[in-house]
């Protein structure tokens, strides 16, 4: 078994199996052992943990996870990688389950029930950036028992997840992430730590799930519909944005009266509201 996390052994494995990188699966493999150790430390993995790794690739981070966790489940979409993982890079470990599937099609709640008796798991992932948001939101919204998600994202996306009102990066993703979890950027990862090199720099962000959401709201779904509608038309006032939103059926006068009750100016934009204010607004509009 080759120890991965360096260019020499990575190239050796890739050549041995005549592996061709698939762009559509966002395959950029980590080749820096320092970064890998830092990710394991950031995710705070220990021998009690059951870890779900999404997108193990040739098993680079998986080796580190198997060394440090009690049990690891790795879900990989590319069937060409499965023999490499099973017969080679992870063959020495008895605490790994490899599943060849698209993570978006896996019933993760059932998996957590089977593997960890329904107790919270830790998720670690280095994924194609275009599926990062659906995966994170899917995990939170389907109430999978989880303690934290430690995930490699594009540097700008990490920024967007942790900012508050009044910045250009603040948006629906910031509010959704912060409703469910506490975001902390743990490290930045330059493009030369991957093979092949991506075009952007990355960052590892840890999302530690809140035990209780930081705000109370009478209708979670309505709040997120309102948030999305407010940021869809960023340049409009909140009153016009919500009034134009298809499917929401919110009247201008109701928004104006809610804003007045909350002591907010009638021409305010959605991007100026905090999570708490979106929750209050939702409660007011629901009553109306
Ligand atoms: N974890 C490895 C590493 O750090 O070197 C590989 C990371 S690579 C950026 C992303 C991996 O996710 C690839 O192996 C890719 O095939 C896999 N992947 C892409 N889409 C996936 C999906 N929908 N479900 C499961 N795995 C996926």
Helix-strand layout with pairing:
Elements: H1 7-16, E1 29-30, H2 33-43, E2 50-54, H3 60-68, E3 71-76, H4 82-89, E4 96-100, H5 108-116, E5 121-126, H6 132-141, E6 146-154, H7 155-162, H8 172-180, E7 181-189, E8 194-195, E9 202-209, H9 220-232, H10 238-244, H11 252-261, H12 275-287
Parallel strand pairs: 2-3, 2-5, 3-4, 5-6
Antiparallel strand pairs: 1-8, 6-9, 7-9
Helix pairs in contact: 6-8, 9-12, 10-11
Bound molecules: S-adenosylmethionine.
Q: Which features would summarize this protein structure in a list?
A:
288 residues, Rossmann fold, Helicase, Ruva Protein, domain 3, 2 domains, seven-stranded mixed sheet, two-stranded antiparallel ribbon, elongated, binds S-adenosylmethionine
Explain what you see:
This protein is of the alpha/beta class and 288 residues long. The chain contains twelve helices and nine strands. It folds into two domains: 7-209, Rossmann fold, CATH 3.40.50; 220-287, Helicase, Ruva Protein, domain 3. The strands form two sheets. It has a seven-stranded mixed β-sheet with strand order 4-3-2-5-6-9-7, with helices on both faces. β2, α3 (60-68) and β3 (71-76) form a beta-alpha-beta unit. α6 (132-141) packs parallel to α8. The longest helix has 13 residues, at 220-232. The relative contact order is 0.11. The model has no long low-confidence stretch (mean pLDDT 94). Bound molecules: S-adenosylmethionine (SAM).
